[in-house]
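Kindly go through the following sequence and its backbone structure tokens. Advise at your convenience whether the structure tokens fit the sequence:

___
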Amino acid sequence: MDEALAALQARLQHPFSDPRLLARALTHRSASAEHNERLEFLGDSVLNLSVAALLYDRLRAMPEGDLSRARANLVKQDTLHRLAVDLGLPQVLRLGEGESRSGGQRRPSILADTLEAVLGAVYLDAGYGAAEALVRRLFKDVDITPEMPAVAKDPKTELQEWLQGRRMKLPVYRVVGTVGAAHKQTFEIECDVPELGVVERGIGTSRRAGEQTAATAVLAALKASGK
């Protein structure tokens, strides 16, 4: 594990003064009472501030609403999961036996939380400047421009604003089915707009992803009907 942690520090480009912080950041609550949840809490705030500063620097003409939407898309679970995999966190994650057997090393929520915990550990080890520098390295390959996909409204937001603009109630989302093992579940979600009598379903690898797919289907139905 010492060699694995040394290799991770090289990938992070941050040699820890206190390696115990990194060890804790990689420890899931299923493995020990000394787990990473407090570091995750801290890292979440570091991440949001660092990404906000990055967007503020790069997108100087963009209004606040678009900046908020871009940040939300850049710090969401799917993005953090991909970054965690690229860093090799699944190979150094410490899990309890049961969590490991159920595929915890591959679970997007656990990996995203672990990445936030690592950021929290870097912050405690060397301060905000070091943590922000790491965030900028993590996002260096992201094309941050006014035209980037992260700025676009996601389907749920677009549907909500469409309904609010017509003074209609917000849609209702329901889980109507799940398939698969815990670490690779598929969610079937129903999106219901009662005032219009429109009900569509979507499928995703998380509840949020399923809701977005269902909202996309509702938007498509509304456009097809000319509403």
